[in-house]
């Protein structure tokens, strides 16, 4: 065996070694190496250190030698050998640029396979680059920016109602879900079984339609509803009368609703004059997402209507009324979280991004 490496520790190095030796479990490898060096600095032999720390003699020799040659830096792990990087920065930039600025000849968007063929890289390499930069060519989302000249004022008005509702008043989100179809399958639905999902025929029989008017109480989650065979200003006026009878007379009523023509007819304007406790708050054009009743309609659709089967409009109407009754027994308010400033800042940032992209 060769001559042992002489270990000389300065006062500053001893302080660092002792501190590192007290490292928690996440850095025990470094702490162990420090204990080897500290023991060697006390003049102990490698055999004694190995016995004391319960490690191999070669391990002690390795770390005392590394410290003798390199000092504290020698106690850290050296870079591990591995395959050199095969994709350089230029290759990554080429894939990103091609993804963002070009389109394949035979498709509307790139896939990993088509990009791999066009760039000369592997599919896995293209996939890693896309993941690293958050690129998802296979996904597409719909959007519509409102051209409403009063967009900002309306957003602040409606969000203000949600976050700071007026006293002695109720805030109702009102809308119609029109043309709900009573659909029945051409064969019975096959039930769910272990290993087999519920099955239904792809075709169906139409048995008529109904229209649902709903007013969601923002505070309680309760819903006032009415179903009608038609959707006109007359039906909307009757629904307003139902709301008027349902809401206690001592409360003002703030109604959030969209810009449908049936909500603005002269008959509705005259009704509002006769009922001064009602105030309408119209959402901006193409901004139905501001109306919380749309979220409630989504619950009704996904949990009840979408997979339901109804042999008649009467059957459909009774089914919807049952679901609404159950909802009102245990209502679940939808809580609005974002302030008007946050919403407007998010829209402004998105507009800036698409403007900078050249679109």
Q: Which features would summarize this protein structure in a list?
A:
5-stranded mixed beta sheet; 3 domains; 45% helix; alpha/beta; 359 residues; single chain; 13% strand; Nucleotidyltransferase, domain 5; elongated; 13 helices
Q: Outline of this structure?
A:
The chain is α/β, with parallel strands linked by helices and 359 residues long. It has 13 helices and five strands.
Largest sheet: 5 strands, mixed
Strand content: 5-15%
Topology as a string of helices (H) and strands (E): HHHHHHHHEEEHEHEHHH
Overall tally of domains: 3
Give the oligomer, counting copies of the same chain as homo and different chains as hetero: single chain
Helix segment tally: 13
For the record, the CATH architecture of the largest domain stands as: 2-Layer Sandwich
What's the end-to-end separation, in Å? 73 Å
Rg on CA atoms, Å = 35 Å
**CATH superfamily heading of the largest domain:** Ribonuclease H-like superfamily/Ribonuclease H
CATH topology of the largest domain: Nucleotidyltransferase, domain 5
Strand order of the largest sheet: 3-2-1-4-5
The amount of helix comes to 40-55%
Counting helices, strands and paired strands, the structural category is alpha/beta
| Arithmetic mean pLDDT | 90
| β-strand number | 5
The low-pLDDT segments are none
